[in-house]
Amino acid sequence: MTRISRRQFLGSTAAIALLSFAERSVFANPLGLPLGIQLYSVRQQMAQDLDGALAAVSAAGYTEVEAAALPKKSAKEIRAALDKAGLRCVSAHHPFPELQAHFDEIVAYDKQLGVHFIICSSPGHRPSSSAAGGGRRPISLDDWHYNAEQFNAMGEKTAASGIQFGYHNHTPEFILTDGKTPYLELLRLTDPKKVTFELDCGWAAVSGRNPAELLKNYPHRISMLHVKDFKLPPNPSPENHDAKVTELGKGNIDYRPIFAQAAKTQHIQHAFVEQEEFDMPWKESLKMDADYLRKFRA
User: Fold this and answer.
1) Rounded mean pLDDT of 189-196?
2) Number of domains in the chain
3) Do the domain assignments include residue 116?
4) CATH of the domain at 142
5) Which of 95, 147, 193, 267 is the most buried (most CB within 10 A)?
6) 126, part of any domain
7) What is the per-residue pLDDT for 100?
């Protein structure tokens, strides 16, 4: 994706006059990217009133979205609702089992939405071990290696449709498994030409990892970010589940070094707010997160 600098964009005063408030303010994002949001944030609201939820997302200032937990509607209907709200769907999330079972249908559906990325949002088990453990046991190192193999294969297939395949982390990726860190194993075993990574800065921090350090060590493997805040326990770790999600700026995650390092990589194409729970009325929460990014100062 070609990135336009803030200076180049603002040089056209005629264009500025025609832009909506949301479009005029997107470049206040600390990375110079359009304001984006993961639609999982409004999953309940979309289920009740899709048009109303998307209109609220747009009104808060977001212009890009990443799909997840969409209502059971056709791609044509979802695309029409997004267009009506003035939103561009550039990425979509799917769990590993869903991708395995319905891969071709997912690619066709997401392509109609206009996505450039299909992201695996959670891992799976190797088929033989899944049958034995019912899919509920901890994921083994062999399972992680199987995921890496499948990601390479999926990435090759999505590329044929002009879509980049990627992986999004939570906390299990950072649990030491047979002496290895699964996230690092995925980075090692996946082909950079076929698989990119969407770093969830919030869940990485909950796991006790430094998102800025990951960006520094793997500057060309991470192309998207999830931006969220948590009230963290004193000693965060993958096994410590005392962290509580909150709105941006209300938790303990310092985004100054994260955004600074992300800017240095010059490789981040999209950054999505994800508000998994609300500490206030949901429309206020969406606006607070958008304002946090618009007003962010390193």
Assistant:
1) 98
2) 1
3) yes
4) 3.20.20.150
5) 147
6) yes
7) 97
